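hiii, so i know i said id send this last week but things got crazy w the move. better late than never?? heres the sequnce for the chain we talked about at the cafe, plus the structure i predicted for it. fair warning i was half asleep when i ran it
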Amino acid sequence: MKPTKNELFKRQIALSEIGEVGQQKLQQAAVLVVGCGGLGSPIAVYLAASGIGKIHLVDFDTVAMSNLHRQVFYTLEDVDKPKAAVLSAFIEKRAPFTEVGYTKKAMTKENVFELIENVDIVIDGTDSLATKYLLNDACVLKNKPLVYGSLYKFDGYVATFNVLQKEGNYSANLRDAFPEMGTDIPNCEEAGTLNALVGMIATQQVNEVLKWITGIGKPLTNQLLIYNALQNTQLKMKLTPTFLKDRIAKIFKVQTYEENSCGNQKEDWQISSTALKEIIGNTNLEIIAVLNTLELPFNVQQTIPVNEFDANKITIDKRKTYVIVCQRGFSSYRATVKLKNKYPDLEVFSLTGGISNYK
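okay and structure toks below
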């Protein structure tokens, strides 16, 4: 069955604020969705269903079993498959008037400008703090609006950054809300998250995109919406643009945007899954998990959540080799760094790529 546009978007066109003109604006729009997880996957599907003409997805990761409670457009059969490819295929079946493509690589300083160049608006669906700042700074430098979303336990955050104003200047950006990148803020993998909240923040971001493209309503510019799911309360934090383009250009020159990625991890502080398998069962090996929710293919001697990981409180036997494990290798590396800083000569390694990469 191939529906017509009028059949597919009839209820949306019926809104006088949208109409045929607004629907055509959506059809002509190109958007970039960075991250195809809990936020990015529903964002992409809802945007496609609304009639966005072009969507490009960016995600380097694969579907994990622990993703499924909140990443509802993936199935059990999709586990271990690339998120971007699976989501792209779903959208192709669901949205016949949307051209969808994907990049199966991480967003980096080297490719960010190329990826944002040919789109009208960028949507942040990531859970990496470094990537959020990279996207923000690149969008400021290239005059691209950015729809921001993030989660922390039962709180969700939404804003539309870097929008051209009538006066010719641009609205506030992420650094106006949070000037410095936090170094010890847990992501959803570490802190946990409620799937209902993830869906709510994702659709809030979709709402911002649709308003900006069609020119209706009042976007969340110069303010940050903070919603608490437990209390059903929200507040809007006013933002004042102070981090202007020239200031961010200086930051961009020196910032690596790799604090939460594998790009700056020391190779000699890591162990591959192949190498770990060779020493599993060794009496001098101690494995420490830094997430409570890990589905492990081997036994661990300790479980210490990464946000409680204190090298000063851990009893160390310098005759042993320590391997720290988590889901994707980010949290385990943070814990490894803490132990290495406390005990420079200790044999301690982070499992490269985490349990997701343990074959």
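btw The domain at 5-262 is CATH 3.40.50.720 (Rossmann fold). thought thatd interest u
miss u guys!!
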